[in-house]
């Protein structure tokens, strides 16, 4: 029979062993567990104050749109032209600003530029001769609904700023133009010399956004927040995926800003980040439910997913930049050739500038 002293000693050893085991587990678990699993508890929620700020902004944009074109005299023009608003969503420097500046050159009355720059990153302001509107921005995080909020803020600010913004092209800091500005403008809006104030009020402009109902990971994406969470607002048959980047007509941009019901579902944090890309789900799902015939169901931004890593597309580097690559990236099976392309690394700028006039902007 064990003595009481031996029993106490055994309990002490067991307790010490358990304590050391728990300590070592706590210490080394972050190194043992996959990074993606750690991130599941780090996804930032949509904060209430941000939500309230956005709601006020969206309501202001909706009211601004109802005032029609009363700002004509304020804009100082008697023959206004419809414009394209270019919306840059970024969390790093706009290294391709010189290329975009050359793209915009000579078309001052036909476009506007708006930038949502993540305030948690210190960005260098590009030295543009064009006017770029850096809008009040909030923090963004990949694979979270913050990217939806950022895109909606860009749309709202563009609508408030200029009533003649008729199309809204969302691009990233890694995007480049594949055509001249005149080519893109004419493709979307026709000859600017023939545009009139009446043209701005036509409701039939189509939006160019990828909307896919067949994807091998569609179900995983649908249940990324948990089984049944999207119901009853969004059934699996209604759920869609697509590209993060789009070109929206003004009527659809306004619908997005007025929308509340689906947003209540998409702002819920995911529990499976491997399948969680809200910015690729919200816009395609909502516009497919609201006006499927008014959307192209294809994107105008070329992305190469061959050899993608951790959800990121293939990135092009300087040695790959050539006229042949640019011509290849333009090719499309849709109505138009691609207007934009991503993803390009910063070291591509010099090579792109060298062929800009002779290749990119020569349609």
UniProtKB/TrEMBL annotation:
<feature type="transmembrane region" description="Helical">
    <location>
        <begin position="12"/>
        <end position="33"/>
    </location>
</feature>
<dbReference type="GO" id="GO:0016757">
    <property type="term" value="F:glycosyltransferase activity"/>
</dbReference>
<dbReference type="InterPro" id="IPR003406">
    <property type="entry name" value="Glyco_trans_14"/>
</dbReference>
<keyword id="KW-1133">Transmembrane helix</keyword>
<keyword id="KW-0808">Transferase</keyword>
<keyword id="KW-0812">Transmembrane</keyword>
<dbReference type="GO" id="GO:0016020">
    <property type="term" value="C:membrane"/>
</dbReference>
<keyword id="KW-0472">Membrane</keyword>
<keyword id="KW-0325">Glycoprotein</keyword>
<protein>
    <submittedName>
        <fullName>Uncharacterized protein LOC111296746</fullName>
    </submittedName>
</protein>
<dbReference type="Pfam" id="PF02485">
    <property type="entry name" value="Branch"/>
</dbReference>
<dbReference type="InterPro" id="IPR044174">
    <property type="entry name" value="BC10-like"/>
</dbReference>
<keyword id="KW-0328">Glycosyltransferase</keyword>
